[in-house]
Amino acid sequence: MCHHLFVYGTLRPGCAPEEVAHAAAKLLPVGEASVAGELYDLGHFPGAILSNDPQRRISGLVFRLPEDDGVLRALDEYEEFFPVAPETCQFHRVPCEAQMTTGSTLPCWIYVYVRDLTGARRIEDGVWRGPAI
Questions:
Q1: Taking the model in full, what pTM does it have?
Q2: How far apart (Å, rounded) are the C-alpha atoms in residues 88 and 91?
C-alpha cells in the first residue's frame, strides 16, 4: 500500500474547501513533484489522467499520509471515490510514480478523473492555478 499522496488541485494547502480541510490539514508535506499525465480544467477543480508520455507532466505536491485511516476515507469521500461502486465514481485513487524535484521517485496515490472529458480544456503546462471564475 502507498503511504504517500500526490495532489495537484483542491487538496493542495490553502485550496481545500471546508468540507475536507480538516483531513487535508493532516497530510504531512514531503515536497514538490510531477507525474506523467495530462491535467484538465473542469471549472471549480482539475482532473488528471495518467499518461506514458514523459513529456506531458502534471505538477503538484507529495504528502505522507498520517497513521489515521480516517483521513484517507475522508479524502476518498470528498473525491467521490467509492471502491465498492466504481461505476458511480468521479475519481479513482490509483498508484503512480511521482518524480520529486530532487530527482528521486516515490510511489504515491493519485486521484484520476474517470468521467467524460469532452469539452474540458487541457491545461497545457500541467499546473492548476485555481478555479475558473
A1: 0.95
A2: 9
